[in-house]
């Protein structure tokens, strides 16, 4: 583990004008490394480097299939360095080592997928009758500014950067200050793949300084952000001053509706992955379970057993996939989640299991199950972003849908039933950008992902994401 990590601007590793920032290992609470901290001047250099690349047309003029091969090569480079990257990711973010390995592989998969899509972003001809030839082309915006969250720092960077590069954009990226180290490997991968200096620029900076400077920079022509609603609103407001489009993937309070005919034994696996993977620090986590009243007691008992089966401790010690969970990203995030559990209990919810900090160094919270949660409680309306499952109940389908749709969010949802007709009806009425039926996180990088309501707008993943990175130009020719 290197003691000092730098930013990457215009093809060179460099210090930051704002000094340095400590990166804490949430698995033990000690300083893991120090990272250069970018200021507004660093942001300006990064954006101008990306502007220069775009103005040169080196990416635009390249045959798309060739550009796609370079994008794919970035994924192969990540896989070739999987062990090294996964260990750094575990130590900076807190997740178990085996989860970190999944994230590195997921990041590589985005580069493979979008590299394959590069040559498919096609225009169309439009018939105007005799004497005219008319067609459309899809042109990149130019500089894509991307603000990365700390929960999946490598994979979410890959998700946006791969689509941006595949469509011919250059990137200025602000890594998360809580977990900035692994983003440097994306820059190394771009360099190894042969992208020109200035195509990918990676900076660690504070949101109120470097982040604000990036989203308001006049050279930025498109913005991608994953994070809180409050910050998303601030970014959209700044972007509007320059009339810049955004892709905003914001919070979630996603619900699984579990009907009376659901397979609860199989659902235990959905609880494990839906709320305790990455210690619940997932935008699309299954934070609410709305279960038919006839199965409530059984589900609560099963959820309790899942939570209590998990071994919790430093992610670096958890190398094998299984019933274990790592730290949250920081003690502040852990304390916030624990405080929300205490507030829920004060408002009438019952703590079935967990809810307490572990009595050891590090940002650990017990896997938690709450019963007796109602829609008027804070825990049912606000995102915890931690390993906390809230169980609610319903009498009929209409009530279940009403409860599921009772928040300002609308990221994902789930329906669990053996009745496919019922599943389809309920899925159509859930206010969510993606609905899983009988498996939480069904789908993959091929399926579009994004929210309704205050969960944001625009779509990541799948072919649909590509259209966020291009703008349509129409060319009309009067024939002689």
Question: Can you give a write-up of this model?
Answer:
The chain is an alpha/beta fold and 480 residues long. The chain has 14 helices and 22 strands. The protein is globular, with a radius of gyration of 23 Å.
Summed over residues and divided by their number, the pLDDT gives a mean of: 98
Largest sheet: 7 strands, mixed
Radius of gyration: 23 Å
Strand order of the largest sheet: 16-17-18-13-12-19-20
Through-space gap between termini: 67 Å
Tally of DSSP helical segments = 14
What is the topological layout?
Blueprint: E1 4-5, E2 7-9, E3 12-14, E4 20-25, E5 30-36, H1 40-56, H2 64-80, H3 82-93, H4 97-117, E6 132-140, E7 143-147, H5 153-166, E8 170-175, H6 183-193, E9 200-204, H7 207-216, E10 222-226, H8 229-241, E11 246-249, E12 255-258, H9 264-275, E13 288-292, H10 296-309, E14 311-312, E15 324-325, H11 331-346, E16 350-353, E17 368-371, H12 378-381, E18 388-394, H13 397-404, E19 412-416, H14 420-429, E20 434-437, E21 456-457, E22 470-478
Parallel strand pairs: 1-5, 7-8, 7-10, 8-9, 10-11, 12-13, 12-19, 13-18, 14-15, 17-18, 19-20
Antiparallel strand pairs: 2-3, 4-5, 6-22, 11-21, 16-17
Helix pairs in contact: 1-7, 2-4, 2-6, 3-4, 4-5, 9-10
Summary, kept brief:
The chain has helices at 40-56, 64-80, 82-93, 97-117, 153-166, 183-193, 207-216, 229-241, 264-275, 296-309, 331-346, 378-381, 397-404, 420-429, and strands at residues 4-5, 7-9, 12-14, 20-25, 30-36, 132-140, 143-147, 170-175, 200-204, 222-226, 246-249, 255-258, 288-292, 311-312, 324-325, 350-353, 368-371, 388-394, 412-416, 434-437, 456-457, 470-478. The protein is of the alpha/beta class and 480 residues long.
